[in-house]
Amino acid sequence: QLQFVESGGGLVQPGGSLRLSCVASGFTLDDYVIAWFRQAPGKEREGVSSISSSGRHTNHAASVKGRFTISRDNAKNMVYLQLNSLKPDDTAVYYCAALLYNGSPWYDQSAYAYWGQGTQVTVSS
Which tens digits make up the pLDDT trace of 52-79? Predict the structure, then answer.
């Protein structure tokens, strides 16, 4: 089965940090743009960050720019999301996915596939 497996979520206080990881299962992610999405309770899933296949180009949602960093290690078939200065509004289930349609905006979730089960991030005091 082709999918990502996400990990690294948890409960953290406001201002804290977490590092999320996702590993590709059943395929190699070298040629794919990879993105992290998140879905908060009662809200639509939204794009958080994306990274090009080479790792040289990234995109971030305005709400996380300067706080979150996306990176990848193609040799390990893994993508990471470093979350710093966390806020309660960052509470969500975080997913990673691979872009299948390169002409689509990076935040267009309909262009992505190989979704995992996600990892829960809860920011609360």
Answer: 999 999 999 999 999 999 999 999 999 9
Cα-trace Rg, the chain: 13
DSSP string computed for 45-96: -EEEEEE-TTSS-EEE-TTTTTTEEEEEEGGGTEEEEEE-S--GGG-EEEEE
Residues 6+ apart with CB under 8 A from 76: 23
Residue 119 has pLDDT above 90, yes or no: yes
- Residue 22: name the closest of 74, 75, 78, 72 by CA: 78
Q: Determine the Cα–Cα distance for residues 4 and 112; give it in Å rounded to an integer.
A: 12
The letter for the amino acid at 30 is D
29: left (phi over 0), alpha (psi -120 to 50) or beta: alpha
DSSP state letter for 35? E
24: three-class secondary structure by DSSP: strand
